[in-house]
Batch of 2 targets.
Target 1
Amino acid sequence: MTFDYAQLVPLVPEIAVLALASILLLVDLWLKDDDKGKNHLIAVFGLVVVIGLTGLVGSEHREIVLNGSYIRDPMSDVLKIAILVISLLSFVYSRDYLRDRGMLVGEFYVLTLCAVLGMMVMVSANSFLTLYLGLELLALSLYALVAFDRDSPSGAEAAMKYFVLGALGSGLLLYGISMLYGASGSLELGPVARAVAWQGADNQVLVFGLVFVVIGIGFKFGAVPFHMWVPDTYQGAPNPVVLFLGSAPKIAAFALAFRLLVDGLGQLHGDWQGMLVILAVISLAVGNIVAIAQTNIKRMLAYSTISHVGFIFLGLLAGTVEGFAAAMFYAIVYALMAAGGFGLLVMMSRQGHEVERLDDLKGLNERDSWQAAMMALVMFSMAGVPPTVGFMAKLLVLDAVISIGFWWLALIAVFFSVIGAFYYLRVVKIIYFDQPEIAGPLVVGTGARFALSFNGLAILFLGIFPASLLAYCQAAFA
Amino acid sequence: MQFALPVLTLCIWLPIVGGLAVLTSGDKSPDVSRWAALGFSVLTFLISLLLWTGFDPASAEMQFVEIAPWIPSFNAWYHLGVDGISMPLIILTTFITILVIIAGWEVIHYKPSQYLAAFLIMEGVMVGVFSALDAVLFYVFWEAMLIPMFIIIGVWGGPNRVYATIKFFLYTFFGSVFMLVALIYMYFKSGSYSILDFQQLPLSLTEQVWIFLAFLAAFAVKVPMWPVHTWLPDAHVEAPTGGSVILAAIMLKIGGYGFLRFSLPITPDASATLDWLVIAMSLIAVVYIGFVALVQQDMKKLIAYSSIAHMGFVTLGFFIAFTIFNRSEAEGGVVLGMAGGMVQMVSHGFISAAMFLCVGVLYDRLHSREISTYGGVIHRMPVFGALMVFFAMANAGLPGTSGFVGEFMVILASFQADFWYAFLAATTLILGAAYTLWMVKRVVYGPVTSDKVAGLRDANGREILVLGTLAIAVLALGVWPDPLVNVMDASIQNLVQHIGVSKIAAGPAAVAALP
């Protein structure tokens, strides 16, 4: 049996990320303590190269390699680039924070890059095993990252909670996958889809497996009622880790859901649609209502994540090409907004104190009006107010939901968005209308300042010209 | 007629770009920001005058149309255009913005560049609302308007500003999201987001009723109509003078404009079926809110309530159309009512702006809006006192001022609909006079009540310039409303023709008695 090395071409970005992680692991050994900043430079430069490589190997065609376990299609190209860009942003945001706390060590970058690799594998998985492999690589790296601040008891507690619930979610997913394997006789998504089409929804084992798969997806997304880990993990983890954990993995989770539910079990759409409706509605309700009661901004954003997951599910459950494109657009846009929101928290919590109370943002406009404007853009975008991209994302999802005749679902969604608007507005209120508790201007590094500006302006630009990103999302499903 | 110059695009984006420029200029030299803001607003006004001069009043077609692809996969277009209904409102917007910028000249000390930038951006966005012919574009402008207003009230407002501004935002947001669902629904019925296509779209009565209610939720909050008006007094009281002026003079008009552009032409049968609801809400606004205004102690609150009552006339003028259809064969009354509503909107734009500016002048001196603080102002401020009395007369609908024209036209039209509508509407002539003149009596006339009032300086040149300009506008529109009425006549005729025809695709027309 000969191995065709041309098969490896679509995997070049993944290989590059792995190589980057390995290089950093080695380089870090020879770096002196006051020279750890080089890690950052190598990681950032490496990611830029990987983004270029992903663009180069991408094309309009789909390729399935490695005996059917790996796929590269337009969707995976777009999602990978989005994941890489968001990860790059989070590196830039976090540099000063990590340096000030002596956490600018190679391990942070190695673990983060392993997580990135895991996400890329998930995005390109074409079999249950590859998918699970990617998922676990991501999850294990994140468990370690949450506890990255060794001296922080709350970090350790968060990591433990995340680990236990994450493992439970993985277990349920794996159990569901084993059912599907038993019923279809294959691990590859293509043959599974054919088997499902042939057996239909009459096969109880198949539907049983589907239930567990949906629960697993719910856990990974943090959808209600499988959301309990989200606020606790966000609260306990160091800010840069929350920034990373709260943004890019949502894109990977979208890929997970899409590969499993649509590529694999597309024929069972009627079955999983109902489940997603329930998950979406209660996620919207719980996420938006509970967020109002939070005083910790990280917890608030955690509940806001949960409500956004509800919107991503709304797009998915439509089951149409427009719906998938809308959900994909939403996932990418959400990652961008979350990166901006958490990025500001990372930037602000430099001088030996962790910004996590809402009150810490008081009077930001007094201290630095440009950063305040960017944060306001992020908040208005999360609330779904035009001309920011958050509105466009919501519009597309609502459009998909109404196109399948679920206009009542659209009404529920907009109703909860109005409730949600309140707590985003409260953040804007705190930034603009309150007097600062800490006087003096905000000290921010050039890199982070640039990153937040890029982030905020991207939100505005995509809101005014959504077609620029939307075209790629729609091409992915054409 | 087609202009090579993209006038509407300029009117939208010039102030927005100008606003961003002013924003980046920072607060190091406030005078530069002020002059730059004034320059941008005057330039925008001058450009918007091209709309008036180049407008063909004989045509009901959309003019100055600009169309370009925006989100192709979504069939949403950057589609702009004006007709006789939206064009006067655009010019009102660009005109009032200049006055607001002048009015805030020496008054705003806290971050003036952000203040001016917010108003300029607001101006562009409001022009966008009036000129958008694509539903997505309209909705984007409609909602985007909230952001600068939210900041204006929240940052430069009074003591209770946070409550007021969040209430304002959430009320409006809540109303409009249902409109969004209705717009998307119609997109799937018609395959396009063009408002003009929506107007031709056949819809069953049930669909129309739901869509009508969704629109009502959005526009009634914006107008605001009783019983969803409660955000307005709060927002007005807390907003800085400039914010109140924009809110009363233009933002409220956007609700009225929405009825003309969306509710009536898109859902004519539902409007005919549910016109009693809107008429009832309008008459309650005229009568009940008139009484509420009578007992106010705060001048701004009083004017805010009077705005609600006056806007009740606007919606009454629009919706008596169907009763007149049922009663007589003449369309004259219908056109009269709608034109009256439009004139009332423009006139109220001038008068309410002037009234809020008058309160602003007093507030800048004594930092109180309470009526009881003042008394005998005219002895110390003769020029200002005269102007304020003039505007109060206009607010009460004195013949010769613009306030009279609109009210008279609407009352005349409602006589053709129903005597009791006219009777209730006409109570405003008494109530409006009562609450406005009583306030004037207590504030302007009488003996000088306190040392504070005794120390008042008369209005300075800047204030006289702003108020004098408005006084001329009020007087001009009052004695010679013809240009305005002519400009919108063709469009209103067209609208009346349109709403007279049932849109229910199959079966007999719901409005059996239609001509």
Note: The radius of gyration of chain A is 21 Å.
Target 2
Amino acid sequence: MSTARGGAARTLRVPGRHGYAAEFSPYLPGRLACAASQHYGIAGGGTLLIVDQIESGLRLFRSFDWNDGLFDVTWSENNEHVLVTGSGDGSLQLWDTAKAAGPLQVYKEHTQEVYSVDWSQTRGEQLVVSGSWDQTVKLWDPTVGKSLCTFRGHESVIYSTIWSPHIPGCFASASGDQTLRIWDAKATGVRIVIPAHQAEILSCDWCKYNENLLVTGAVDCSLRGWDLRNVRQPVFELLGHTYAIRRVKFSPFHASVLASCSYDFTVRFWNFSKPDPLLETVEHHTEFTCGLDLSLQSPTQVADCSWDETIKIYDPACLTVPA
Amino acid sequence: MERPRSPGPAATLADAAPASATLAQLLQLVQQGRELPGLEKRHIAATHGEPTASRLPRRPKPWEGAALAESPHPRPQASPTLSKGMAPAEAATAPS
């Protein structure tokens, strides 16, 4: 284990905006979207920030305001201009980065905060899944004005909904009811319920190189790996965070590498196949760190955003050497 | 913590730097039903415009490339189906 600063992080200050989610564009290297909220998301409006990496640092390309806080963002997989956000007022918004004004569309069906949105990752599907504090998951075709389907079953707020990168129509959800659930969009029902933690689960993600492997991050400060072929116990547990884990993501490039950010202000990098799995702890924020993404273009590049009103892009030391 | 019903340890509020003090003050104002400083009330509505046409082809994901090229990454198992994935295994082990 090493405690190191991400070398020469490029930083954008966004005064009065508290970052909730950061997502790299799947099309344009160095373009980043950040969903942010005024007043820590407690009250006030939200802002979608589109940020470009330039030689001298980070430059704000465009920003879009919304009436309520924005908690998550996802890029379209079939149009480089398009994104979807989830908001505190229960709506989803469709945005176009090539236009100064927006949103193009608003989809209001959830009755409470929309905390997660994700655009499908498998080819041949262009669907968005949303998770809400109203305890439902909804499936959307952004070209259609209303949801295609509503999934019920979670017994508390939903914090995270993520499509499988391998199995068409399959997504995972994580909830305050302490379960991770695997759904089949075509069957409109839950397929697997995993009591993954004895605490609220704030985040989950799929391994990009093993279709059966997921990770969960929870308020109990632990990350746990789950093999869908046998969910009686986790296949790994990663300990080190000192407060709730807000978001976890698998590496797009390495099968056993993942990153997590936390209410302990840190971002940590892990390789669960190693006896000493904690690769690096990055301590460059001074508040809750809620947004995190790993670049799809560069194997070493990471972005995060925090309630300290900054967005950062950096290359942590542990990713610049073979994991 | 973010909103009245939200996860995250309350202890961090007291521990943290000045920004958290602001958060604590903010929560106090909300609880007292008082007006928040600099609150922006907006009335934004959908433009109902059409998205700008895409000009770029979809890029393959890094893991899609791994299935084609020779690489150190483990390849995804063949014919992914959820039902197959649900079959219980004798021993669940982490991939290396």
Note: The helical segments of chain B are 11-15, 18-31, 62-66, 82-86.
